[in-house]
Amino acid sequence: LPVLTAFIITCIIIESTPGPNMGYLAILSLDKGRSAGISAVIGIALGLLIVGVAASMGLASVISNSPFLFQALRWGGVFYMLYLAWDSWRDTNAALDKSEARTQEKIAHEKYFRRGLIVNLLNPKAGLFYVAILPSFVTQDSTIFAQTLVLTLAFVAIAAAIHSIVVMAASSIKPFLENSKRQIIVRRTLAVLLAAVALWFAWDTAE
């Protein structure tokens, strides 16, 4: 229990520090609203879980020790986020009737879930957390795999909770920006900020 408590505190501190995930979720929620942000949070959580399982199988260690694989993931993530910025810039968000709007909303949820997932799978620092930090909280008192699984699930739950708070806070501001004359300006400003997050991602993952 003391080890788990220390791990939880460590995770809260790490996830509360502003980073690419937090920046992306804030911008997305401010532009598209709470539902889009929550969909992305679920995708990010699944991505963290997949990376955690991969780390337990040794894949994250292989990537962290291979400059080529590390840089391939790193730049893949950067360019993907730049693509998201471009997609946001050219999104006109034309008016739709109610039935079409519901269909588009369902498609959007799947899209933002997928984007959250991909952003995390292309984030090499997610794997480094499992390689460099998580093992220091594993003891010899019980099965290593079981401990790793519990710690991974705890980390994913904490990250999802903090990310959800970011989404709720950012989306609460959105109604104040919903003005037909300002929507394009706001959206394109957020697209530029998302491009800045991509550059932040490049700097944050630099070795």
How would you summarize what this structure contains?
With 207 residues, this protein is mostly helical.
Describe, in plain words, how this protein is organized in 3D.
- The protein contains nine helices and no strands.
- The chain is mostly helical and 207 residues long.
- Helix 3 (34-56) packs parallel to helix 6 (98-121).
- Mean pLDDT is 76; it is low at 94-101.
Overall pLDDT metric: 76
User: Roughly how much helix do the residues carry, as a percent range?
Assistant: over 70%
SSE sequence, one letter per element:
HHHHHHHHH
Major beta-sheet overview = none
Q: Give the radius of gyration.
A: 18 Å
Q: Topology, pairings included?
A:
Layout (H helix, E strand, L loop, with lengths): L1 H15 L3 H13 L1 H23 L2 H6 L2 H24 L7 H24 L2 H10 L10 H28 L11 H22 L3
Provide keyphrases for this structure:
single chain; 207 residues; mainly alpha; 9 helices
